[in-house]
Design brief:
Blueprint (H helix, E strand, L loop, with lengths): L1 H18 L13 H11 L4 H11 L4 E4 L1 E3 L11 E8 L2 H11 L6 E5 L4 E8 L2 H11 L7 E5 L2
Parallel strand pairs: 1-6
Antiparallel strand pairs: 2-4, 3-5, 3-6, 4-5
Helix pairs in contact: 3-5
Length: about 150
């Protein structure tokens, strides 16, 4: 009978302690609410420049290195290190069609790689970040734009 009372007392104690609730606090894996709000405020860009920088940082790096040459009749001086490609075609006429559509705002150049693909370069830069910024600006029009670098 004595063991029976002891078992019941232990079970009662376990149930009592198990029902007590400790107020949750911010642990190592869950930031406090105030910290969350502060992070949200700090992360949000306030200026157009900050928005552009954030958009550029979020873009995946789409860069390809290959050998290419400027096709006859194009100005090779416009080609720099980092070239923003907006279209690739097997057919030269298709590349020329895209080129003529963009001539109003840019001076696009057509190059051909070793596999015979015609690449339409919208604009070239000496700086990769500048090329990536341009891709961020034209993303709505050319979602699959990428950077082409001449293979040495």
């Amino acid at each position: 009978m004595r063991n029976y009372k002891l078992v019941i007392s232990l079970l009662s104690l376990i149930l009592f302690l198990g029902s007590c609730k400790v107020k949750e606090s911010a642990g190592a894996y869950r930031p406090a609410e105030d910290t969350k709000k502060l992070q949200e405020v700090v992360v949000k860009p306030k200026t157009e420049t900050q928005k552009t920088v954030q958009a550029v940082a979020e873009l995946p790096d789409r860069i390809r290195t290959e050998s290419f040459k400027v096709i006859e009749g194009e100005d090779a001086t416009g080609v720099k290190t980092y070239n923003v490609v907006i279209g690739s075609f097997k057919n030269r006429a298709n590349a020329q069609g895209l080129q003529s559509l963009m001539k109003a705002d840019y001076s696009p150049i057509i190059v051909i790689n070793e596999q015979g693909m015609f690449r339409v370069i919208l604009i070239s830069y000496n700086d990769y970040v500048a090329a990536k910024q341009k891709i961020a600006q034209i993303k709505s029009q050319f979602d699959d734009a990428w950077v082409l670098v001449q293979k040495q």
